[in-house]
Design brief:
about 180 residues; globular; single chain; mainly alpha
Length: about 180
């Protein structure tokens, strides 16, 4: 997995340790690398808002309520991956920016240019895209032994990775401008 930047804030160091406890493969490592770029470009600070919790998987809610694992050991297990997958996609679909289109198969497009407005995804820090990364980590831990569920999870990871690459570029462009 990608290493934690030495200048990272303590909240990030702790969360990075959690998200790398289990090796979930190259797809997830790519997502982690993009997440690190977003947070580094944001100077490991927190945005003033948060990604919506409406439709968010209960495992993520429990994790957040326990201080993202710093106050207790919340149950983040995924006993029913198919149900979790449906819930996760409902939440993820609700977060998509208006410019994002779908491909011929009905999946979110992961090609072409990124839009300028990020709508409900433009949140960083503990209340930002980290919630999505954590949701995928919990799901990924549950499906490593099931080939069909693993493919569904990798599809989600690839989709979030594409968005996170765009968000990283967006945040880095502001950092270059001195904001």
């Amino acid at each position: 997995p990608p290493t934690c930047p030495p200048q990272a804030a303590s909240w990030f160091v702790y969360t990075h340790e959690q998200m790398t406890q289990r090796h979930l493969g190259p797809h997830f490592n790519g997502l982690l690398a993009a997440w690190i770029r977003i947070e580094a470009a944001s100077r490991f600070e927190h945005s003033s808002g948060a990604i919506t919790k409406k439709m968010r998987p209960e495992q993520v809610n429990r994790w957040i309520q326990c201080g993202r694992g710093q106050r207790g050991n919340p149950d983040t297990s995924v006993p029913n991956p198919a149900q979790y997958e449906r819930q996760w996609w409902a939440w993820w679909n609700s977060l998509q920016p208006v410019w994002r289109g779908k491909d011929a198969d009905g999946d979110w497009s992961v090609a072409g240019a990124y839009g300028k407005e990020w709508d409900g995804l433009l949140f960083w820090g503990q209340n930002g895209i980290l919630s999505v990364v954590a949701a995928l980590y919990f799901w990924g831990c549950a499906v490593q032994e099931d080939e069909e569920c693993l493919r569904a999870w990798e599809r989600a990871v690839n989709d979030v990775s594409w968005i996170c690459e765009g968000l990283a570029l967006f945040h880095e462009s502001f950092k270059k401008k001195g904001f």
